[in-house]
Amino acid sequence: MRVGLLVNIKPQVKGYRDRAVIAPPRRGAAMQPSMIEDLYAEWDAPETIDAVRHALESHPDVEVEVIEAVPDRAIDRLLIKDFDIVFNLAEGFIGAAREAQFPALLEMLGIPYTGSGPLALAIALDKARTKEILSYHGIPVARFITTITPVASIHSYLPGSDFPFIVKPISEGSSKGIRNSSFVTNLDELNHEIERIAGEYQQPALVEEFLPGREFTVAVLGSGDKARVLPIVEINFGELPPEANSIYSYEAKWIYDVSENPLNIFTCPADVPAKLKDEIEAVVLRAYEVLECRDWARVDVRLDGRGRANIIEINPLPGILPNPEENSCYPKAARAAGLTYEAMLLSVLKSGCDRYGIPFKFEPKHEPGLR
Ligand SMILES: Nc1ncnc2c1ncn2[C@@H]1O[C@H](COP(=O)(O)OP(=O)(O)O)[C@@H](O)[C@H]1O
Ligand SMILES: [Mg+2]
Q1: Residue 111 and residue 18: Cα distance in Å, rounded?
Q2: Which of 144, 233, 261, 279 is most buried when burial is the number of CB atoms within 10 A of its CB?
Q3: Prior bond to 112 cis, omega within 30?
């Protein structure tokens, strides 16, 4: 089977594991400090892409060609239409629908691909739209407003809600724009963050009620009736330095937690009572279903003041760092389920093939004791 591995490759700066970069976003545009650091945070490092290629090729019937998801090269290559399926990791380019761009193109060309479709990808990248849809279906989410300009008062928009709030860019992932300062306790801090996000990311801010409870992230594998959750990951905020707020910020993900000095920030499987485990799993699978996610995704959950599981966001293109020493939730959950990196990715491929009726023989071996 010929598999096209469609990826965006992160430009590397020597000495930094996951930080990058070099080129400004537009010719002539001034580069903001945060852009230097996190412009390509969502893209995959060359080591990750190699590891994915090797993992898929560990199956005797799979032959992989890496396609860089840049418009000219990728479109010319895909037009040849000689792939049985594309394994989609493309983050896309500019705009709030960027993750949907390549899946939409693949659909236009009639090429099968793994993962969610353009609609789910575009919605999931807009955290406000996602929450609107989830709340329509009765799934708990934090109350919020979106704004691109400072506000005179927050209480008039969210009566009954009070500080602290969290302020995030509406359409980013990989903790882009979510800083320790995103946790705000008064109107000055709130407006400062709204202006920072409007200035650095040119987009509205999402101002959300802060969910004060435990935080989890849950990997889902499979599609439709076959979608299942992998063991729940808990984020241990106690591992962060004392000055850090209890949020999984850019600093927590990329600065405090480095491969030379990894934080023990995740516990998997999370130590939760059976009732809470059932509640989290049910709400995650419901969110996955409502958004029409396919093959795989990772869903972030946090408990509100009453201990109820709320959905924070859905990641239909989850991060998949291959090295167990580096903290990456989806592969960690897969290992806790007894799935190697190879078995995890081949299971995603199998789920995609099954949806299209593409013959592909694969049954993952479960290896207990993987960590
Ligand atoms: N409403 C909220 N209440 C409490 N913490 C939140 C809330 N929204 C986000 N966070 C914190 O910020 C982190 C990053 O937010 P998230 O929306 O998941 O962004 P990203 O796309 O960068 O992962 C979360 O993992 C969580 O720690
Ligand atoms: Mg998240």
Answers
A1: 31
A2: 233
A3: no
Helix (H, G, I), strand (E, B) or coil at 83: coil
Q: What is the pLDDT of residues 309-320, one digit of tens each?
A: 999 999 999 999
Architecture of domain 143-209 in this structure:
2-Layer Sandwich (3.30)
Distance 204 CA to ligand 1 centre (A): 16
Residues with CB under 5 A from ligand 2 (ion): 300
Question: Where does CATH 3.30.1490 sit in the chain?
Answer: 143-209
Whether 173 is in the pocket of ligand 1, judged by its Cβ within 6 Å, is yes
* Ligand 1, atom nearest to 172 Cα: 21
Q: Which of 64, 155, 134, 74 is nearest to 289 (CA)?
A: 134
> What is 2-115's CATH topology?
Rossmann fold (3.40.50)
178 CA from centroid of ligand 1 (Å): 8
Ligand number, closest to the Cα atom of 312: 1
Q: pTM score, two decimals?
A: 0.92
Tens of pLDDT, residue by residue over 45-73, are 899 999 999 999 999 999 999 999 998 88
Choosing among 3.30.70.240, 3.40.50.300, 3.30.470.20, 3.90.79.10, the CATH entry for 215-356 is 3.30.470.20
168 lines ligand 1 (CB under 6 A): yes
Is the Cβ atom of 166 under 6 angstroms away from ligand 1? yes
